[in-house]
Known about the structure:
The protein has five helices and four strands, in the order αβββαβααα.
Amino acid sequence: MKQLTDSDYKQIIQRRDPRYDGRFYCGVTTTKIYCRPVCPARPKFTNIIIVKSPSAAEKDGYRNNIVSNALRLIEENVGGNQTVESLAQKLVDESLWQTNHSYLTHHIWNEFAQTLSKRKQA
């Protein structure tokens, strides 16, 4: 397999190419959040670093993206018959635990709720 260039990464992220999901992660330097290349967030590419794993991102001081986590769980139908609200609460609890109860801002919660609502309507 060829070594990916910055241009390759940029195109993969712009396309949200599912073939690369889980093969690398994007750390956003301005927010210190990392997510998958298929994440709906669209930061400037100049603000992105590429890491090979969630543990590598966390070692560099980045934290998990709750919206990306929510989308993954919904796509994988984790939770089965749970309501969106129940799944959302589980994700919030997990996120708070993962960030060592540091914070979950109102902005992040609103973004998360809107994304879940849009996915549920689709």
